Structure formats: C-alpha cells, structure tokens
Amino acid sequence: MIEFDQVSKRYADGTLAVGDLSMTAPSGAITVFVGPSGCGKTTSLRMINRMVEPTSGTIRIDGEDVTAQDPALLRRRIGYVIQHAGLFPHRTVLDNVATVPVLEGVSRAEARRRAGELLERVGLTAAMGKRYPAQLSGGQQQRVGVARALAADPPVMLMDEPFSAVDPVVRESLQQEFLRLQGELGKTIVMVTHDIDEAIKLGDHVAVFAEGGRLAQFATPEDLLAAP
Ligand code: ADP
Ligand code: ADP
C-alpha cells in the first residue's frame, strides 16, 4: 500500500500544489486521483516515485519511507505511464518494451522474447512490434506505453491521464482491456484523471482533489454514486 502522511508540496515560486494530504492507496487495487486541473494530482503522483520531493510529510510504500530509498531503485519497482506514451521514437515498438530490461542486465534475446509476450497481452501483434511508434495509432502507442511499464513487472504502477489522448471509442476499449489485465495482474495502481466518469469506472477507490491540493473526499465509486 501507498500511504501519504501529512504531505505538502510548495514549489519554489510559492505555489502550494498539495496541502496536508493524508490518505492510503491499498495494495492490489486501483486508486484514482480525480479533480479539476491544477489541484495537485500530478504533483501527488510524482512524489510517489520521487520525481517531485515533498516540502513536508512522509510517503511510505508498504511501510517504507520512499526518501530512504535510492530513486533509481525505487523507479524500478514503480511503472510509470503518461498521457502521450513517451516512447523512444527511433526504436522499434519491440525494443521500446525491451530496452529497460536490457539496461538492467537481461540478455537482449530474453528481453525481446518477454517484450513480445507483453505486446501480445496488451493486444498488439508481432508485426506491430517491428514498427516504429509513429507508425502506430495513438491508442496503440498507449498500449505500448503500458507494456513498457509492465516490462519490469513492477508491483506499483503510476498512470497519469493514460487514456486521455485517444478518441472516446478507443478509450472505452483501452479502459476495458486495462481492467481485464489488472484483474489478472493485481498491481497497486494510482491513476490520475480529470474525468469523474473514468474515475468511477476504473477506480476501486477514488480520491477527489480540490483547490490547493486538498483531499475533498476518499470513497469507493459506489459511495460516490450513492451520495446526494
Ligand atoms: P493537476 O495534476 O491536478 O493538474 P499539478 O500537480 O500539475 O495539478 O499542479 C498543481 C499546482 O502546482 C498548479 O497550480 C500548478 O500550476 C503548480 N505547479 C505544477 N508544477 C509546478 C512547478 N514545477 N513549479 C511551479 N508550480 C507548479
Ligand atoms: P485507433 O482507432 O487505434 O486509433 P487508427 O484509426 O489511428 O487506430 O489506425 C487504424 C490502423 O492504421 C491501425 O491498425 C494502425 O496500426 C494503422 N496506422 C495508423 N497510423 C499509421 C501509420 N502512420 N503508418 C502505418 N500504419 C498506421
């Protein structure tokens, strides 16, 4: 599980992005950060893998303070998926997925074999693995982004608006496939979205952020829907 314990973040220019956030994202579940633009969702997400350091407070993963861990090692245990998949443009799709394991010492042949399996799991063919990212649709590129994040088999996945850049029909199918995959994998996932419908559809738990990075509500989708 991921615990935020009285976490605040004030950027150098004085902006209070997150104010006294305390909450827990349970293990093996999808927790969605939802709320309007600028209310501290992305900042909160990036404090988990230390892309952003809190001004005060503590974040723990399975009881361990993230600041006690080497950021590079920490990020191996934490997959990261962003809105525009952020793929390496000059590497094939297969090598996009295989690159990080190779850097971590897995042989190229083994990394490519596993990358092929992962691409299949996210619904892409071997032929697509041979293409370059620009030769795939936006929806397909997002699948590659997910496969790449899964390549290290991280227990934790952070996802920042992973389905926002694709059209509504593709989004719907990506969301369904994502839920199916998570049903098999049971990762601890924290996802950011500005779309309350997406939060309700995908979240096991929903953290509703408000102005100043304050937590307005932490609830299950059922409770949110039942609220007057
Ligand atoms: P959200 O993800 O909810 O849109 P962010 O966490 O990106 O919110 O931003 C929260 C607030 O912090 C906003 O007011 C934003 O402008 C500000 N902010 C984000 N990143 C920086 C930065 N690097 N420096 C200064 N202010 C920032
Ligand atoms: P999606 O609905 O997933 O966004 P698109 O309508 O963008 O898909 O693309 C439909 C098909 O065309 C896909 O199979 C994709 O692989 C292929 N395709 C899209 N862009 C290119 C491109 N630049 N070069 C080759 N094939 C492409």
Give a verbal description of the structure.
- The protein is of the alpha/beta class.
- Helix content is 38%, strand content 26%.
- The protein has nine helices and ten strands.
- The strands form two sheets. It has a six-stranded mixed sheet, with helices on both faces.
- α7 links the parallel β7 and β8.
- The longest helix is centred in the last third of the chain and has 18 residues, at 168-185.
- It is globular.
- The two termini are 30 Å apart.
- The mean pLDDT is 93.
- The structure holds adenosine-5'-diphosphate (2 copies).
- The site of one adenosine-5'-diphosphate has 12 residues, from α1.
Short précis:
The chain has helices spanning 41-48, 71-76, 93-103, 108-121, 126-129, 138-150, 168-185, 196-202, 221-226; strands at 2-10, 16-25, 30-34, 56-61, 64-65, 78-81, 156-160, 188-193, 205-210, 214-219. It is an alpha/beta fold and 228 residues long.
Q: Tell me the fraction of residues in β-strands, as a range.
A: 25-35%
Q: Which ligands occur here?
A: adenosine-5'-diphosphate
- The end-to-end distance, rounded to whole angstroms, is 30 Å
User: If you compute it from the alpha carbons, what radius of gyration comes out, rounded to the nearest whole angstrom?
Assistant: 18 Å
Note the main sheet: 6 strands, mixed
Helix fraction bin: 25-40%
What is the residue-averaged pLDDT?
Answer: 93
Strand line-up of the largest beta sheet: 6-7-8-3-9-10
Count of discrete alpha- or pi-helical segments spanning 4 or more residues: 9
Low-confidence stretches: none
- Run of helices and strands: EEEHEEHEHHHHEHEHEEH
Number of strands: 10
Structural class: alpha/beta
Protein name: ATP-binding cassette domain-containing protein
Family: Belongs to the ABC transporter superfamily.
Domain ABC transporter: 2-228
Keywords: ATP-binding, Nucleotide-binding, Transport
